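Subject line: Sequence and fold of a protein, written as structure tokens
Body of memo: The sequence and its backbone structure tokens, given next.
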Amino acid sequence: IGQGCKTIHLLGATGTRMDHVLGNLHLLGMAMEQGAEALMADRHNRIRMVQGGLVIKREEQYGRYVSLFPFTPQVAGLTLQGFKYPLCGYTLECYHSLGVSNEIIGDAGEISFEDGVLVVVESLD
């Protein structure tokens, strides 16, 4: 990041050690705070951390399912467009599973929110 890298791909970061997986998840936040995008990927998932929003084009989607997890206590004003289960201005809180296993049904899935940090998981199966 200090040398100008704007996108980082972490491969092999989702192995069998859950403590390492969680630690690597925090690396996504470290990159985000410094203005870089970091992605964790394996054979079944692509994981990223976002502030403000994200558009996932259906033809570029990694798999079939999109799950959203708040990384902050709340993600306020969450709106999902182009998804099987849309939302409008919802406050997603920690310890709730409402964001698990959605599907993009339009040309793109648009995720926007006013405040907070989301972990976005795209899954093949």
Summary: The first strand starts at residue 7 and ends at 11. The first helix runs from residue 18 to 33.
